[in-house]
Amino acid sequence: QRNRGAKLQVQLNREQHCVNMSSSEGDAFLREVATFESNSFSVSPDQLGEKASNALSVTASSNTRHAALFTIIDSIQDTEPETKIIVFANTIFGGHESALAALTKSKRKFCHVSENNSVQEQNEIISWFRHVDATDEEKSRPRVLLLSFAQAAGHNLQEACHHVIMYDPMYSGSDAVADASVEEQAVGRVMRQGQKFDVTVTRIIVKGPDGEPCVDDWIVERNLDEGVLRAATSNFD
């Protein structure tokens, strides 16, 4: 785990990239929560109960989330064209599928690990992001790797990567500690011994059409709560 052994000499910077959903997406979200609390974006998934799935699917597939992903990637690559970027997304409510579709449609060069890949193919894809490129052939490969949060554990990507994008927050239910632990495991792929650069984790947060706090805000605040993080990382020591 990233916290074992000597103290890391690099900083972890947590950033947020906030965007507003479109009016049509806002209408779709309100329809999903209408029976609970009409005309309100400030509702938590825990309050929504069984209706949380549909509401979270609306925000996970938001076109403004797609645009935010491209903006962040472009900003990183404009200043650090040789760096490699890891994008994590939640599979439970369609975030990973949404990110995959957006990246594919954009014609951008990227990699992802699919269940259709053989174990050898999966290992080869991941290995491209473990080391700094040395040859022209290696430098021509994609610089972006899309992984689900479920694929976060077990990879050491600190040598070539120091940028992580969280496409959508991790939410699987009411267990905040479990969800925060999954997110911290994802961060730990690059924030670990051997990292030579400060690590930047950028979260995409989708708000209501007029900037109203929405489910992303609630989940992120919950997952980054000091007590929750302390409990989530207690087994990292």
DSSP, total strands: 6
- H and E order: EHHHHEHEHHEEHEHH
Overall mean pLDDT score? 92
Major sheet characteristics: 6 strands, parallel
Question: Helix and strand layout, with pairings?
Answer:
Elements: E1 12-20, H1 23-33, H2 45-48, H3 52-60, H4 63-79, E2 84-89, H5 95-105, E3 111-112, H6 119-127, H7 136-139, E4 144-148, E5 161-166, H8 176-187, E6 199-207, H9 215-223, H10 226-232
Parallel strand pairs: 1-6, 2-4, 2-5, 3-4, 5-6
Helix pairs in contact: 1-3, 8-10
If you had to describe this structure to a student in words, what would you say it looks like?
A six-stranded parallel sheet has the order 1-6-5-2-4-3, with helices on both faces. By secondary structure, the chain is α/β, with parallel strands linked by helices. It is 39% helix and 16% strand. 40% of the residues are buried. α8 packs across α10. It has helices at 23-33, 45-48, 52-60, 63-79, 95-105, 119-127, 136-139, 176-187, 215-223, 226-232, and strands spanning 12-20, 84-89, 111-112, 144-148, 161-166, 199-207. The protein is globular, with a radius of gyration of 18 Å. It has ten helices and six strands, in the order βααααβαβααββαβαα. It starts with 11 loop residues before the first strand and ends in a 5-residue tail after the last helix. β5, α8 and β6 (199-207) form a beta-alpha-beta unit.
Which structural traits does this protein have?
six-stranded parallel β-sheet, globular, 237 residues, 39% helix, alpha/beta, 10 helices
